[in-house]
């Protein structure tokens, strides 16, 4: 059951990835989607991802990228690039 007083702030944020290969970006999108409270909604050709975030902590692209994607990117760079 959902309550109005739930401390969440859902929204869609834009993040920028430094990954270059399609396989690395796909793995990043899947990793984000598997994280509770996040879902990758769209990928663009210029390296941006749109993420639905159940509790938005920042709408700034750099801060949102740091909070959502950076921990995955380091590993994915080692594997795919």
Outline:
This protein has 81 residues and is an alpha+beta fold. It is built from three helices and three strands.
Structure report:
By secondary structure, the chain is an alpha+beta fold. It has one domain (11-80). Helix content is 40%, strand content 22%. It has helices at residues 22-34, 61-68, 70-80, and strands at residues 11-16, 38-43, 48-53. Strands 1-3-2 form a 3-stranded antiparallel beta sheet. Helix 1 packs antiparallel against helix 3. The protein is elongated and about 45 Å long. The chain starts with 10 loop residues before the first strand and ends with a helix. 22% of the residues are buried.
> Which spans of ≥5 residues are poorly predicted at pLDDT below 50?
none
Would you tell me the overall average pLDDT?
A: 92
Provide the structure class: alpha+beta
Rg over C-alpha atoms, rounded to the nearest angstrom: 13 Å
Helix content: 25-40%
Shape: elongated
Strand order within the widest sheet? 1-3-2
Sketch the major β-sheet: 3 strands, antiparallel
How many domains?
1
Number of strands: 3
Strand residues, percent:
15-25%
What's the helix count?
Answer: 3
The helix/strand order is: EHEEHH
Distance between the termini: 44 Å
């Amino acid at each position: 059951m959902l309550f109005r007083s739930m401390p969440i702030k859902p929204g869609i944020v834009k993040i920028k990835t430094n990954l270059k290969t399609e396989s690395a970006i796909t793995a990043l999108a899947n990793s984000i989607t598997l994280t509770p409270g996040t879902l990758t909604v769209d990928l663009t050709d210029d390296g941006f991802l749109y993420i639905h975030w159940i509790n938005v902590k920042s709408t700034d692209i750099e801060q949102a990228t740091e909070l959502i994607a950076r921990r995955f990117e380091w590993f994915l760079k080692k594997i795919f690039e």
